[in-house]
Structures are given as structure tokens and as C-alpha cells.
Design brief:
With 598 residues, the chain is α+β, with helices and mostly antiparallel strands. The chain has 15 helices and 19 strands.
Length: 598
């Protein structure tokens, strides 16, 4: 008990801070909305003014009283400074409170985008991370899990299922570590990789990150740096594919939470769900010092469809750049798709320790996503018929994408990939615009003016909010309507400080930036010899639905939704980092760095 008390001693709860001026701690673009929030009990509008670097007033007005806001617990006043467009450094003053200085700058998001991309280099497995690319000697480290040749898990799992293993090993060196742990997961890797490849494909006429613009060992090879980073993960996903002719004992269909009944199936072309440690490693653990046995875990239909989808996308983006790699991706995509059709209900087994489960009981969205990606790559009549038979091809989109909700990914591909027939493209765009309109309407119900009006903030809420930003950005491009782009800005404003905690959730950016993520190497809180995080890493964010660790559990019943967060390396439910959250940060920051969002 004394040890638990000592562990929890540093915690401070996110109590309401009246008269706090909350805004994007970097500042604003000249040509987009500029909104700040004041938490103040006043029921009448309050006068505000903006002063420049010399203290001269340059703008003034009165707050808009929103009133009580359920998600934050604040009494909210909104301050609209959109008329301020001249680049410079400013300060906002209202009701005796003053903000930190902020900038108006057309290049505001460029450093964020570059740092967010560099995160993926720094989370690479199988390669030494060098100081010259990582930004400093403190982040350099030896290669983690080099020459990673893994066999399959064999023996009893936590629920007594006896797994026979497999008759092969796979060389799965490379890829990205998933999050605060050092597992590598095809499912979560899939959506993260898709986001990077989509960022390239959606801007292929003038792609961001031309060769040599990013801090990568591949810079100078004649290939776009964003594609270089994406290929690091794509090669790993390809390596996770089951060899043809392999018959494996796998659980078929939904079987509940007890011991599983295994059936021998033709698993050739499927993808292993993950490669990870047999047991959880301790905090901290430098990747090169991980002594746990690395194992392949059973294939799943979800992982197989993630491979099919991203490999088909890979075939499109690499065509004409590296045709051999494009053909390799397309071949793997076809093998995976056929394997999923042959084994449509192999759900991810969950009774293993040492890694996350990433279980998903509804695979209809993955089937739709993979079919859409293959159709965009090779629009055959057979794929067209399969796609058009699927209810998700015409149904309203249910929400922002996530690792277990991938339908929107397929729709975005149909809306943007070259060569998609006009009828399919236009229908996909209409569905995305309708979803963006739903998000846009939520801003009126949010005190902090977010396209996310809810009092339930899930694990990884920052990723969910930024993924909404991607949908809104698509709508802005399709329509030219500036309201959608301003809503994308709202998502960035939130993660960069316009929230009730006055917290930038992105390391290295803002005057009050997250600094203690849940991570096994960026673990200065646990070991003073280890570094804190590099710039450009986003934490999971507010979470009032899963107080899953002892530290975040201290907030249960004591915080409103947007205040349920702690900057503490032990609070993995709040402050873990993950590739699928940094990917939309990269996408949104890059979009906002492009003139007019083009």
C-alpha cells in the first residue's frame, strides 16, 4: 500500500481553471478561423482585445457566451479573432486574463508535420536509430529485434486452448513498433500505413515530402520521403503473410470467451495477426535489450484483409515509381483477398499475454475496405460486382475511421484514387460530404467548438478527433467550402491546446506540451538515463470510458470527459502513444501546411 501511495503521489487532478484562455499554443494560419475559449462564470459577454508584439491593440470584440459545456465542465465563452490575418506575434487579453504569445504564420504546421513523420522513423524496428536523423544523441538507440525470424506460438494460451504452432518460420524484421510496447500488429499497422499512403496518393500531383526533405536514411534515393517511410511498414506486412499450401489449426467462427475449438484450414495467403513478446516486458525496456521470445500469433481474417487493402493501395502508389514493388504488392493483395474469402470468419484469438489483442467481431467493414482498394487498383467486373453487392457500399458512413472501423477508408479511396469510375467516385464523395456535415453540425453543440460533440471520450480520443479532421479535409477539397477546412483547424486547435486542460498533446509543440508518454524507451520518468519523447509525438488523450490502469483510475468519478487525462508515463489509458494516432496527426498537419489545403 505504501508503494502504491508513493506511485500516485505526483498526480494532480484536472480541476477547472476559471479565467483560463485556451487556444492553439502555436497560433493560427492567416486565412483560417481563429478561435479561443475562455472558462469564465460571467453570463454576459466580456470585452477582449488582441495586442501585437509592441503591445499595440490590433483587434477587439466581445465574447460569445456559450454557457455550460458538458464535455469540459466549464462555463464557456468563445472568442472569434478570425478577422486578424496579418502575420506576426500577438497576445489575447480578456477579463483580466492574458494568453501566452501566439503567432499568425502561413508555415505554422510545417514543423509539426515534419516531426510527426519523423516519429515513424524513430519507432522503426530492425534498424539502428541514428542521432543525425532522430534529432539528437539522446534519441539514438541500437537496432531493436534485428534479424527477427519468428516461429508460431505453440502450447496452451491463457484460456487453455492448445495451439499446435506452424511448420515454418518467417523473417519479419522491420516495420514499426505499435505503441508504448514493442509488438508489431498487422491490424493497427494497416490503418496507420493506409493513412501515410493515402496522404501521398491524395496529393500525388504535387506530393508533400519530396526526396531529401525529411530526416531519413533513405533521403537522396530519388523517392518521395513519405513513400520511403511507408515502404518500411509495407514490407513488414508483406512478410507476415502465411506461405501458400500451409494448413493451420485455427478457430472458425465466433466461439465465446472460453477454450477455442480449432479446425484445420487452408491458411495460405492469410496474415498473422501480430508478432510480439511471449510475456509483457517491464517499463522501461530499450528495444535492443528485449529478452522475451518473439512469436508469430495466429492468423486472422481481419489482419488478412488489412494486408489485402494496404497492399492494393501500395500497388497503386508505387506504380511508375518502383514497378517491381508495385507488382509484388498487388500479388500479395490478391493472395490475401482470396484467403479471406476462403476463411471469412477467423477472428483474432485474444487469450495471449505480452501484447495487445486488437479483437474485432465485425469484419464487414474490412471486407468492404479491401474490396474497394482492390477495385481501385484493378477495376475488374468481378470486383465491381462484389463491391456493389456490399451494403456498406451505399449505406451512410457510421463515423470516423479507426482500426476496428475501416469502412471510411474504402470510401475515401473510391473518392480520390485515380481511375475509379466517375459514378463510384461521385457516390463516395457524396457519402463523405454527408458524414462531414454530421461532424460540422456537432460544433454548435460543443463549448470548445469541436466537430466532436460527445461526453464519452474513448481510449485514443485524440486519434478519433484527428481522423474526423481527415474526413472534413476531404469534404473541403470536394466542395471548396471553407467551413470544412476551418473545422479541420478546430481538430488541430484542440490537440495543440484549445482544450480545458490548456494542454498541447503533441510533444515539443506549445508552452504546455505533453512530456511523459507511456513508452518503453522514451521513459525518462522511469529512468533518468533514458530520454523523454522527441517532438511530434501525440498522446492518446482524454479518456473517460476506460480507466484501465491504476494511475488513470484515480480520476474515475472525479473528472468530466475532456479533463480525464494525466501526463504520466504510468497512465497508459491516457498517455500511451501509437502509430494509428500519429498517422492522422501527420495527415492533418500536412494538409494544413499546404496552401489553402490543396
Amino acid at each position: 500500500m505504501k508503494r502504491l501511495i508513493a506511485l500516485l503521489a505526483p498526480l494532480t487532478l484536472g480541476a477547472a481553471a476559471p479565467n483560463a484562455v485556451n487556444l492553439n499554443q502555436l497560433g493560427f494560419l492567416p486565412d483560417t478561423a481563429k478561435l479561443a475559449i475562455l472558462n469564465d462564470a460571467a453570463t454576459a459577454p466580456l470585452a477582449w482585445r488582441v495586442t501585437d508584439a509592441q503591445g499595440r491593440p490590433v483587434a477587439q470584440g466581445a465574447t460569445r457566451v456559450f454557457g455550460d459545456d458538458a464535455a469540459s465542465g466549464d462555463h464557456v465563452h468563445q472568442i472569434d479573432m478570425t478577422g486578424l490575418r496579418l502575420p506576426g506575434t500577438y497576445r489575447l487579453e480578456v477579463d483580466g486574463a492574458a494568453s501566452h504569445p501566439f503567432r499568425i504564420d502561413g508555415g505554422l504546421y510545417r514543423p509539426v508535420a515534419r516531426a510527426a513523420l519523423n516519429y515513424f522513423y524513430q519507432t522503426r524496428a530492425g534498424i539502428a536509430i541514428e542521432a543525425r536523423y532522430a534529432g539528437g544523441a539522446q534519441w539514438a538507440r541500437a537496432a531493436g529485434h534485428p534479424h527477427e525470424v519468428a516461429g508460431c506460438f505453440a502450447g496452451p494460451d491463457e484460456r487453455g486452448t492448445m495451439w499446435p504452432g506452424c511448420p515454418y518460420t518467417l523473417d519479419v524484421t522491420g516495420g514499426w513498433y505499435d505503441a508504448g510496447d514493442q509488438g508489431k500488429y498487422v491490424v493497427n499497422g494497416g490503418i496507420a500505413l493506409w493513412t501515410l499512403q493515402n496522404l501521398y496518393e491524395a496529393n500525388a500531383a504535387a506530393p508533400s515530402f519530396p526526396d531529401g526533405s525529411a530526416a531519413l536514411p533513405e533521403a537522396g534515393n530519388g523517392t518521395n520521403d513519405l513513400l520511403d517511410e511507408a515502404r518500411w511498414e509495407m514490407r513488414f506486412l508483406l512478410a507476415m503473410q502465411v506461405p501458400d499450401g500451409s494448413r493451420l489449426a485455427l478457430p472458425v467462427g465466433r466461439q465465446g470467451r472460453g477454450r477455442l475449438l480449432l479446425t484445420e484450414v487452408d491458411a495460405g495467403g492469410m496474415a498473422h495477426h501480430k508478432v510480439a513478446d511471449r510475456h509483457w516486458t517491464t517499463l522501461p525496456t530499450i528495444p535492443a535489450e528485449d529478452r522475451e521470445q518473439r512469436l508469430l500469433y495466429p492468423p486472422s481474417t481481419a489482419a488478412t484483409l488489412n494486408l489485402a487493402a494496404t497492399a492494393a493501395q501500395c500497388a497503386r502508389v508505387w506504380k511508375g515509381i518502383d514497378d517491381g514493388f508495385a507488382r509484388r504488392c498487388l500479388t500479395a493483395a490478391g493472395r490475401a483477398y482470396r484467403a479471406a474469402l476462403r476463411n471469412p470468419a477467423i477472428y483474432a484469438a485474444q487469450a495471449f499475454t505480452g501484447s495487445g489483442g486488437y479483437g474485432d467481431d465485425d469484419l464487414s467493414d474490412e471486407f468492404y475496405w479491401a474490396t474497394a482498394e482492390l477495385y481501385a487498383a484493378t477495376p475488374t467486373p468481378e470486383l465491381a460486382a462484389a463491391l456493389h453487392r456490399m451494403p456498406l457500399a451505399t449505406a451512410p458512413l457510421g463515423g470516423e475511421p479507426g482500426w476496428s472501423n475501416t469502412a471510411a477508408l474504402g470510401t475515401m479511396t473510391l473518392a480520390t484514387a485515380p481511375g475509379v469510375p466517375a459514378a463510384d467516385r461521385d457516390a463516395a464523395r457524396a457519402r463523405l460530404i454527408a458524414l462531414a456535415d454530421r461532424f460540422l453540425a456537432e460544433e454548435a453543440r460543443s463549448g470548445y467548438h469541436l466537430p466532436y460533440a460527445t461526453t464519452r471520450y474513448p481510449w485514443g480520443s485524440n486519434g478519433a478527433i484527428l481522423n474526423r479532421g481527415i474526413i472534413l479535409a476531404m469534404a473541403a477539397r470536394f466542395t471548396g467550402d471553407a467551413r470544412y477546412r476551418d473545422a479541420v483547424v478546430d481538430t488541430a486547435d484542440y490537440v495543440l491546446g484549445r482544450n480545458p486542460l490548456n494542454q498541447s498533446y503533441v510533444t515539443g509543440f506549445g508552452w504546455h506540451a505533453m512530456s511523459r508518454p507511456h513508452h518503453r524507451f522514451w521513459a525518462h520518468q522511469f529512468d533518468a538515463r533514458l530520454p523523454g519523447p522527441p517532438p511530434g509525438v501525440i498522446g492518446g488523450g482524454a479518456n473517460n470510458t476506460a480507466f484501465a490502469d491504476p494511475v488513470s483510475a484515480t480520476l474515475k468519478g472525479q473528472c468530466t470527459a475532456q479533463r480525464c487525462w494525466l501526463d504520466d508515463s504510468r497512465a497508459y489509458a491516457d498517455n500511451e502513444v501509437a502509430i494509428n494516432w500519429n498517422a492522422p496527426l501527420l495527415w492533418v498537419a500536412t494538409y494544413l501546411d499546404r496552401p489553402g489545403g490543396r
